[in-house]
Amino acid sequence: MMALFSKKSAELSQERPAFDVLPEHIGIIMDGNGRWAKKRGLPRSAGHKQGSETFRTIAKECGRLGIKHATFYAFSTENWKRPKEEVEALMRLFKEYLLEAKEDITAADNNKIRFVGIKEGLPDDILALVEEAEEDTKNNTGCDIAVAVNYGGRQEIVCAVNKLIADGKTQITEDDISNNLFTVPDCDLIIRPSGEQRLSNFLLWQAAYSEFWYSDVLWPDFTVNDLYSALFEFEKRNRRFGG
């Protein structure tokens, strides 16, 4: 089920390859920023800064490839437990991204930007920028790029159920939950760099039949060739969905 990655970067052309099969929805856990910085004797914030540049590169490439949905795990509900200085640095970086990256990413194949997660607890200035980015890109027709901030997979399911209850539902189906999650549709491929092999509370409902691709590359060093390797591996998977 969870095959280890097969790195093919050395074999890949510098030109964008053609894929016979592309996942409709990919999820990427952007992991390894802190370790990247530590290896270089830098503060963790430097790793997050470099990781944000990688995000911009990979998000744009998803649009250019024709992937319809890409969800990037940026900040979990559990990340608030990190040292105050690191959380503050992440919030500053997130604000910088919102100010700088919207035009950069949407210019690549008319992409759309959404932010998924719990908005309560995020600073007001960031919430205002989030709403602006979503409003300005809502009619775009390229890749639907979802950035998961203050996000937890369990919390997402609870929110969906509570919404259905508030709407008067007394019998809840799987389709009801699927249609009321932050991110739809189900995820076809989950990519996790940095050597870890777990979901970490990411897309728990949507990952029921996801394919997984792991890599030892730390997120700040992740390249489009690593993305291509994951997509080449996805093409070879025999997806039976339990059948």
Could you characterize the architecture of this molecule?
With 243 residues, the chain is α/β, with parallel strands linked by helices. It contains 7 helices and 6 strands, in the order E-H-H-E-H-E-H-E-H-H-E-E-H. A 6-stranded parallel sheet has the order 3-4-2-1-5-6, with helices on both faces. Helix 2 runs parallel beside helix 3 and helix 3 packs parallel to helix 4. The two termini are 14 Å apart. The N terminus is likely disordered.
Strand segment tally? 6
The main sheet comes to:
6 strands, parallel
Mean pLDDT: 85
Report strand %. Answer: 5-15%
Helix fraction, binned, reads 40-55%
Q: Note poorly predicted spans.
A: 1-13
Can you count the helices?
7
Q: Identify the strand order in the major beta sheet.
A: 3-4-2-1-5-6
Based on CA atoms alone, the radius of gyration comes out at 18 Å
Q: What would you call the structural class? A: alpha/beta
Report the end-to-end length measured between terminal Cα atoms. Answer: 14 Å
**Topology as a string of helices (H) and strands (E):** EHHEHEHEHHEEH
Shape label: globular
